[in-house]
Amino acid sequence: MTTYYTNDRDTILRIGFANTKEDLTKPKPIERLSGERATMPSVRILGTGSYVPPKVLSNFDIQKMGLETSDEWIVKRTGVSERRIADPDVTTADLACEAALKAFDMAGMTAREADLMIVATITPDTCCPSAANWLQAKLDAPQAVTFDITAACSGFIFALNVAEQYLRTGAARTVLVVASEVMTRTLDWTDRNSCILWGDGAGAAVLQMGDAGPEILSTHLHTDGHNGQDLLMPGGGSKTTPISHESVDEKRHVLQLIEANASFRVAVRHFVESIKEGAGHNRVDVQDIDWLIPHQANLRMFQSMAKTLKISMEKFYVTLNKYGNISSASCAIAFDEAVRDGSIQKGHLVCLPVFGGGLTWGSALLRW
Fold first, then answer.
1. Closest by Cα among 323, 86, 321 to 185
2. What is the spatial distance between Cα 67 and Cα 255, in angstroms, rounded to a whole number?
3. Of 197, 179, 206, 187, which Cα lies nearest the Cα of 51?
């Protein structure tokens, strides 16, 4: 298991020493100091954006495709009523571009002002070039450095964490983080247990160091490669290339959910742990969090989380019902919508917990 924390410049430097004897799994909480240090620059969110394709695929539409299911069965099992589907000629970078433009617009900036662009995705346009490279071309931002991050449904928080490091160390001044997915092209549309879950879309955020505005208080990342086989998409990797008749017939190029019930329990546990970790690291009570905006995986997961944490479901911001699960983009899209519809207000404490394949999980705690 790998654990990684960020909070302040001191934390970054401590992590950088390979021979440290300090237990980094138990970081010191943030010291809320008064005076000059309290106004020291930190990572700020200048703008957010999101985009989902216009085409809607409802549960009734899926039933009409001949799948043995119903709207009642899908809603009861997952909380999903409909999802968005990208047109055949629309790519992950196309979705990312739309979300990025909205984020830059909110920030009052252009793409030419970003010196780093990070795209979180497991469905890039191509393995090479990266989705971030394609996005850079679409945004006409030759001055930026661009690359992808692969962390499945946890990708947005992993990308925020990486962006923090570039900003805190001064290696970048303005960072665009995008999570974008075309998940519907990874599915076996005859498998009612998995194809009902997913959709397409993108979310984005523009970050800088500053002393005012919405602040990233901390991010927390974890991975567990030993159990990664339970959420698997082997297609496109070295295990299944080149494509063969055999690999296609065996459906090795579609998303595979293995031991779904066990994964559900593991996900809930890690969601809860991540929320508690973010709160504890910043010396706040979980009950003091105004909004929980999780990766939009399953409504029953949210209900289990609320019960375990003893908090109201009204604190959960949910887009799952209308968009389904969009992997790394789910959390980012929900976050942007909560900002734009006024749900998130100045001073609100917001937690973004995530869990995904890898296994990967973590959280970000923000003060708006």
1. 86
2. 17
3. 179
pLDDT tens-digit series, residues 135-151: 999 999 999 999 999 99
Catalytic site residues?
A: 153, 295, 325
pTM of the model: 0.87
- Tokens standing for 119? 């795209």
CB 294 within 8 A of CB 320: no
pLDDT, tens digit, for every residue of 247-300?
A: 777 676 777 766 556 678 899 999 999 999 999 999 999 999 999 999 999 999
Domains (range + CATH), the chain:
42-211 (3.40.47.10), 217-367 (3.40.47.10)
- 73: how many CB neighbours lie within 10 A of its CB? 14
How far is residue 332's CA from residue 350's CA, in Å, rounded to a whole number? 13
Burial of 4 (0-12, 13-18, 19+ CB in 10 A): middle
Q: Is 222 exposed, middle or buried (0-12, 13-18, 19+ CB in 10 A)?
A: buried
3-state secondary structure of 274: helix
User: What distance in Å separates the CA atoms of residue 334 and residue 137, rounded to the nearest whole number?
Assistant: 26
SS3 224: coil
CB 69, CB 194: distance < 8 Å: no
Gyration radius (Cα) of the chain, Å: 20
Residue indicated by tokens 């290339």: 241
